[in-house]
Amino acid sequence: MSKSNISEYAFNEMLSHVPLCTYPRAENILILGTCEKDFKEDFKNELQKHKAKVSYKNIDKLSECKEKSFDVIIVTQKFELSKEFIDQAYKILNADGLITFLSTSYFDDIEKLKNDLLLSGEAFWIAMPFSFGHTTAVLASKKYHPTADIVLQTSDLLQDLKYYNSELQLASFVHPSFVNKELLGFAKR
Question: Bridge-partner residues for 31, per DSSP?
Fold first, then answer.
């Protein structure tokens, strides 16, 4: 398996299964971001393992969504996070919904990661970074904790995976001590 294939599997599987194995029985999922056709197909295959209704929109179309209409939002492209975006996402999520979005590694731009955690943490009960490969994302949740509430009945029974597993989900939220200290007051665990 080539290095680029591993990165692609890691991205598709972690970005889809981490939030969907945190939220029990998600029924309505919103994917935000521009997707190439091949990526969309691969990502769609991962999402189908969860048997939920999936909607796709460009990131700038978030305001067109009805309030409380989604369990999970997954943002598949990097963008400049804003309070307006977080407020809108919060409104369209159900009472216990969660969002996952790409951020930046603490090694590349700790201030951006802190800002992303701060903005999402102002609205959500939990806002935690997770890392896989060379990618860092944030999971922000109104209720469910990505390590304490992992749905093992879902995560352990997923078939045909090349990267994701429940132990890797737990490990992806573990960071070096100096990073934890640096993110103290920004990440909400």
Answer: 56, 74
Q: Quote the CA–CA distance of 151 and 140 in Å, as a whole number.
A: 17
Place of tokens 């992806």: 172
Q: Which of 45, 40, 127, 119 is nearest to 79 (CA)?
A: 119
Give percent above pLDDT 90 in the chain: 72
Q: Which residues of 53-78 are buried (b: 16+ CB within 10 A; e: fewer)?
A: ebebeeeeebeebeeeebbbbbbbee
- What is the mean predicted confidence (pLDDT) over 91-116? 96
Whether the model clears a pTM of 0.90, i.e. scores above it, the answer is yes
Rounded to whole angstroms, the Cα distance separating 75 from 79 reads: 9
Tokens 């994302």 label which residue?
137
Class of domain 3-183: alpha beta
Q: Are strands 135-141 and 126-132 parallel, antiparallel or unpaired?
A: antiparallel
SS (H, E, C) the chain: CCHHHHHHHHHHHHHHHHHHCCCCCCCEEEEECCCCHHHHHHHHHHHHCCCCEEEEECHHHHHHCCCCCEEEEEECCCCCCCHHHHHHHHHHEEEEEEEEEECCCHHHHHHHHHHHHHHHHHHCCEEEEEEECCEEEEEEECCCCCCCCCCHHHHCCCCCCCCCCHHHHHHHCCCCHHHHHHHECCEEC
Tokens representing 40 are: 């969309």
